[in-house]
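The passage that follows is intended for readers who have already worked through the single-chain material. We present the inputs for a multi-component assembly, then the predicted structure in tokenized form, and finally a short commentary. You are encouraged to pause after the input and sketch how you expect the pieces to fit together before reading on.
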Amino acid sequence: MRKHSCRKVASLRRTMAELGEADEAELQRLVAAEQQKAQFTAQVHHFMELCWDKCVEKPGNRLDSRTENCLSSCVDRFIDTTLAITSRFAQIVQKGGQ
Amino acid sequence: MEGGFGSDFGGSGSGKLDPGLIMEQVKVQIAVANAQELLQRMTDKCFRKCIGKPGGSLDNSEQPGRPGAGVRAVPGAAKSRAEPCAPPLPQKCIAMCMDRYMDAWNTVSRAYNSRLQRERANM
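Having made your guess, compare it with the prediction:
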């Protein structure tokens, strides 16, 4: 699903071939910034996929503080999990290579 | 196609491309794509939260986990019942769910941003 906005950026790169050098460098900078923003947004969507189910029971008139804390923690714990998996996987691969 | 891909992003007939104009259009297109994705996910989540047993219409669909399964929700009937916390009708549930989904989106976005800044500060 995240591919949609990334495809826009890819199509833009093809367009850039038609520009002069200075314009192209400028555009490259701006595109890189937008790409970073798009990646951030895509990641937030992904967090919502996981954290909404974990943290929100029945939608009420507002999010209570328990739900808000749950959502924040969910993001942090997911990132911690990612880091833990990455580092352990590196160890596994390294051990496998000996 | 006249102008090739340039015509997608603000190229005029002469083929001269303006980075500012191009970026404006890119931002709009990305925003539209993001809105579509948000709606798609929000619809999915709120359907799950608000519609249990699908009925013949939105008003006649039960909400998930409600006691008295098999009883249809009828507009106005909630007022005559003495329940202090009568669950909202599906349409009200959907409206609340949408608002909460966007609140949650903002909370998650802020949390992620803070974490990124913390990680950068530690590098």
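Commentary: Chain A has a mean pLDDT of 88. The domain at 1-96 of chain A is CATH 1.10.287.810 (Helix Hairpins). How closely did your sketch match?
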